[in-house]
Specification:
4 helices; four-stranded antiparallel β-sheet; Flagellar_biosynth_FliO; alpha+beta; transmembrane; membrane; 36% helix
Length: 177
């Protein structure tokens, strides 16, 4: 009896903690404090344009940050700004005429009706050598034996019928007494 009460208390406490964590997560996500989009200077996008190794642990990296192109020297001792300048504008494709989109022809209702009648009129047939039974399991796999747990193995677990009977009896005794 005491074990059941303790188990129910632990389950209830765990449920309350999980619900509280879920509510706090939702509230933090809505307010933008946790995991949402960063605001201010931290929201700058950094795009690595190119990277060239010049030694064992040294390289030159070209990055675009907020419309500015930076050339950085990176080594195991640190990162140094080599030069900076205005990032080039992205290349745009200019369309000077009307654009033709591909159009699939839609089948007419008559063509659909004819196809439907043709399919429903056909009789299903099996090849003559299909009289023998087909295998029901994929090849190259062993048949797996299904082992059912015994009552002794399930004793005390939530899967045991005796556990559920004891829980129901405990609830009945609590209501009556």
């Amino acid at each position: 009896m005491d074990t059941l009460v303790i188990t129910l208390r632990v389950a209830l406490s765990l449920g309350v903690v999980l619900a509280l964590m879920w509510v706090l997560h939702r509230r933090m996500a809505k307010s933008g404090l946790g995991g949402g989009k960063a605001k201010g200077r931290r929201s700058a996008t950094v795009e690595v344009v190119a990277r060239q190794a010049i030694g064992g642990k040294a390289s030159v990296v070209v990055v675009d940050v907020e419309g500015e192109r930076l050339v950085l020297g990176v080594s195991e001792h640190g990162v140094n700004l080599l030069t900076s300048g205005q990032a080039p504008a992205p290349e745009l494709t200019i369309v000077t005429g009307p654009v033709q989109l591909p159009v699939r022809p839609t089948p007419s209702a008559d063509a659909f009706r004819q196809e439907l009648e043709q399919q429903t009129g056909a009789e299903p047939s099996l090849p003559s050598d299909a009289a023998e039974a087909l295998p029901m399991r994929p090849r190259n796999r062993r048949a797996q034996r299904a082992t059912l747990p015994t009552a002794q193995q399930l004793q005390g677990s939530i899967l045991s019928a005796d556990t559920w009977r004891q829980a129901a009896a405990a609830l009945r005794n609590r209501r009556v007494g």
